Amino acid sequence: MEDDQWIFLSGEFVRKEEAKISVYDHGFLYGDGVFEGIRAYDGNIYRLNEHLVRLYESAKSIMLDIPYEFEAMKELVAETVRKNSLRDAYVRVVVSRGVGNLGLDPKSCGMAQVVVIAEELALFPKELYETGLEIVSVATRRNRPDVLSPKVKSLNYLNNILVKIEANLANVPEALMMNNEGYVAEGSGDNIFLVKNKALYTPPGYVGALEGITREAILEIAEEEGYTIKEEPFTRHDVYVADEVFLTGTAAEVIAVVKVDGRVINDGAPGVETEYITKCFRNKVATDGMQIYAQEAEIGG
Ligand code: PMP
C-alpha cells in the first residue's frame, strides 16, 4: 500500500515518499491551518458536505482562503479515494496557511496549501469494539470557546495532544477532558454520550466540544428511534453513574466505554442501547453517502 499511495499536494497527485512540505509552511511553524477527517464506506463518502462545510467554516473563522470552490473540493476528496483504489478509507484534508517567512504574521504567506490523504484506518484495535474502552478523566482542560473556539477544527491540536499524553501515562486508549467549569466536554478526538434511564445525554455546544458529525448522526438516530434526548451539561459524577457510556467520532465511529476513573459502567460490558445505536449507525453509513465509483451496469438494464 505505502509504495503506491498517492497524495494530493500542491495541485497534483504525488507518491507518498515525495509528499513533502516546506519547513516555512505556517502549518508547520505555527499550527496555522484547518483540517478534516472524513470516511468512505464501501465506495460511499459519508456526509462529505457536512465535513466540508465544517472545513470551510473553520477556514473562514481564521480568515484562511481555501483556493478551491466547495464543489471542486468535494471532487478532490473523491478523486483521492479513487486514485488510491480504496472503497473503505479515512481521508484527511489539511489546509495550511502556506509558505511564509519566520514571523507569525500570515501576511507573509502565499497561497494556502491543500493536502488530501486517503488511507485505510482502524483507530482502536478491533477487539476494543467488543470489550469497550477503559478511560480516565484528565487535568488538561478543553480550551475555552472564548479563547479559541473548539468549533474551529484547526491544526492547533495541542490541547487534545496533552489529553492523549495523559491517557498514555494512565495506560488507557482515550481520556475525557472537562471544560473550565468542570463540566465534561469531550475526549481527545471524540464526543461523549451517556445513556441513563433510556435517555441519551451529550454536552451541548456551549460546554465546548467540537460539533462532531458523528454526534449529529447519533442525535438523528436517537430522534428516529424515539430516545429522549438531553443536550445538557453533566459532570464526571453523571458519567460514573450512567447506565451506559459511549464515544463517537469519524475515526472511532461508536465505541462503548466500560470503565471511567476506575468506576465500572454497565457491569463492564458494552450496553444494549450502545449496541443498538451502533447497529443503526452502521445502517446509516451504508446507505447515506456520496457514491464515488460508477455503479456497475445492471443486468438487462
Ligand atoms: N472532538 C474532537 C476534538 C475531534 O477531533 C473529533 C474528530 N473530528 C470529534 C470530536 C468527533 O467529530 P466527528 O464525528 O465529526 O469526527
From TrEMBL:
Cofactor section: pyridoxal 5'-phosphate
Catalytic activity: L-leucine + 2-oxoglutarate = 4-methyl-2-oxopentanoate + L-glutamate; L-valine + 2-oxoglutarate = 3-methyl-2-oxobutanoate + L-glutamate; L-isoleucine + 2-oxoglutarate = (S)-3-methyl-2-oxopentanoate + L-glutamate
Signal peptide: none
Protein name: Branched-chain-amino-acid aminotransferase
This protein's record includes keyword Plastid: no
The organism of origin for this protein: Salicibibacter halophilus
Enzyme kind, highest EC tier: transferase
Pathway recorded for this protein: Amino-acid biosynthesis; L-valine biosynthesis; L-valine from pyruvate: step 4/4; Amino-acid biosynthesis; L-isoleucine biosynthesis; L-isoleucine from 2-oxobutanoate: step 4/4; Amino-acid biosynthesis; L-leucine biosynthesis; L-leucine from 3-methyl-2-oxobutanoate: step 4/4
Membership in a protein family: Belongs to the class-IV pyridoxal-phosphate-dependent aminotransferase family.
Highest rank taxon of the organism: Bacteria
Cytoplasm keyword on record: no
InterPro entries associated with the record: Aminotrans_IV (IPR001544), Aminotrans_IV_CS (IPR018300), Aminotransferase-like (IPR036038), B_amino_transI (IPR005785), BCAT-like_C (IPR043132), BCAT-like_N (IPR043131), Class-IV_PLP-Dep_Aminotrnsfr (IPR050571)
UniProt-recorded Gene Ontology molecular function terms: L-isoleucine-2-oxoglutarate transaminase activity; L-leucine-2-oxoglutarate transaminase activity; L-valine-2-oxoglutarate transaminase activity
Cited function: Acts on leucine, isoleucine and valine.
Enzyme Commission numbers on file: 2.6.1.42
Annotated keywords: Amino-acid biosynthesis, Aminotransferase, Branched-chain amino acid biosynthesis, Pyridoxal phosphate, Transferase
GO biological process terms, semicolon-separated: isoleucine biosynthetic process; L-leucine biosynthetic process; L-valine biosynthetic process
GO cellular component: cytosol
